[in-house]
Amino acid sequence: MTNEALKAKIITMLPEAEVTIGKQYLEVVIPAEKLRQFARALKESEETSFDYLICLTGIDFPENMMVYYHLESYKHKHIMVLKTKTHDRQDPVLDTVCDIWRTAEFHEREVYDLLGVKFNGHPDLRRLFLDEGWGFPLRKDYMDEIRIVER
Amino acid sequence: MTTPDEIKTQEYLINMGPQHPSTHGVLRLLLKLEGEIVHNVEPHIGYIHSGIEKMCESLAYPQIVHLTDRMDYLSAHMNNEAVCLCVENAMGIEVPDRVRYIRTIMAELQRLASHQLWWCVMGMDLGALTTFFYGLRDREKVLDIFEETCGARLTVNYSVPGGVMFDIHPNFQKRVKDFIIYFKKKLPEYDQLLTGNVIFKERTKNIGILSLEDAISYGVTGPSGRASGFACDVRKHHPYSAYPLVQFNEALDTAGDTFARYRVRITEMWESLSIIEQLIDNIPGGDYAIKMKGVIKLPEGEFYQRVEAARGEFGVFIISDGKKNPYRLKFRSPGFSNLSALNVIAKGWKIADLVAIMSTLDLVIPDIDR
């Protein structure tokens, strides 16, 4: 499906989605509470059929924490970037998608480990690389007096 | 006297690793066993986590290239190339054709070296030590070519944004062609030694089956995914560098068992040889790099670049705010996603099968830990 057709389809699926055709891929920003329902629809709908989660990235932006999902359809070969955000920096919580795309189980643990975003409904949300109580190094306000040298 | 029926076993937990010969690095698997049947595998990783994504946030783009070959050191060139391609695409730079040819030849040589090492280690894991000597003997030839081209044997650092670091050595083409002739004679030996071996077949066929649906859902890419029928070769479906110019087949299998993952890699070695053959005589003249500014700044935006590394799809995702270092940089490493499927593959098989399954997933730990 072309990006234009995909854009029209996504707007019919979720009217409140902000859809833009980016330089590379179609970019869709959705409210966090619609994430699970919309992700499931994206995977199960015959026309979109996004069954391959390429990459899951958590980003700490100045005003919010965002999670990006790079999705590809094995059948149709089209790609899109699904984005969702949470404004709560103290206790950021999003819904899990790891029952929809199983690879998310590890990726969400990584995002939790490095950014502190919790995923509701994740079966085994523990630190992945670092020890308990380490802090969240990929946050922009992370300070480590011992290991990071300011130049 | 107790009969076998009365002997009860109970589930117990055992650690495999972090220092275990078959994990090829510091990976700890927490196994839930009954007898020697694996009920659950829980990977514990992070022993060599280097925080590479955090480091990249304070480094300039040419510096980041040098870090990437420390992740999956067996596909060092592909990792370098991925960052270079991402930076070039973001800046809208077209590299000369000569660079595209050189990069593709180097990438395929790297893939061969990686698969050779995988093959010798795979044999060794299953108790066939001879393969180790055969594989390393042939890998040495590739590493010698690397050494002559760029001075390094493992962490090559050959690609830079805008081109490659030096022009190829005058001997390069002759040496690569000699190697192709040499390795085409040696590759059938691999089949004679291992592929047809009865013990090897018994230990790999119909064992550790990964279904197509699971392969896609777990994001298992590369030869491991293609053995389940997941046509995910980035070189074929999203071609970059000189791959649009060459003819090659995507090695696919549908069985999804350990033997299929083995055979896909052997087929890939033949395909890599064929790709190099098509390119080596046609390297166009011209510059080996274009002149870049001293400080590389990317325009604001999000850029994703995927390449086919030896273990699967390697992705570089850069979010730039227009400064000389990235706002956020994410590496999508193939080993990380492949490892997540280990539990679903190994469940129900014996520990000895788990060793074979891990061999065919071809895990490189720095690639997983990053």
Report on the architecture of this protein.
The complex is a heterodimer of chains A (151) and B (370). Chain A has helices at 3-13, 35-44, 104-115, and strands spanning 18-21, 26-30, 52-60, 65-72, 79-86, 93-95, 118-120. Chain A is α/β, with parallel strands linked by helices and 151 residues long. In chain A, a hairpin with a 6-residue loop joins strand 4 and strand 5 (79-86). The longest helix of chain A has 12 residues, at 104-115. The termini of chain A are far apart. The mean pLDDT of chain A is 86. In chain B, the strands form four sheets. In chain B, strands 1-4-5 form a three-stranded antiparallel beta sheet. Chain B starts with 11 loop residues before the first strand and ends with a helix. The A-B interface holds A 22-25, 27, 51-55, 57, 59-60, 68, 70, 74, 77, 81, 101-103, 105-107, 110, 114, 127-130, 137-138 and B 45-46, 49, 51, 53-54, 214, 216-219, 230-232, 237, 301-304, 306, 313, 315, 317, 319, 327-328, 330, 332, 336-337, 339-341, 344, 369.
Write the layout of secondary structure elements.
The complex is a heterodimer of chains A (151) and B (370).
Chain A: H1 3-13, E1 18-21, E2 26-30, H2 35-44, E3 52-60, E4 65-72, E5 79-86, E6 93-95, H3 104-115, E7 118-120
Parallel strand pairs in A: 2-5, 6-7
Antiparallel strand pairs in A: 1-2, 3-4, 4-5
Chain B: E1 12-16, E2 19-20, E3 25-26, E4 28-34, E5 37-44, H1 52-56, H2 61-68, H3 76-91, H4 97-125, H5 130-150, E6 159-160, E7 163-164, H6 172-195, H7 198-204, H8 212-217, H9 222-226, H10 234-237, H11 258-280, E8 301-309, E9 312-320, E10 328-332, H12 334-340, H13 342-346, H14 351-361, H15 365-369
Antiparallel strand pairs in B: 1-4, 2-3, 4-5, 6-7, 8-9, 9-10
Helix pairs in contact in B: 2-3, 3-4, 4-5, 4-11, 4-14, 5-6, 6-11, 11-14
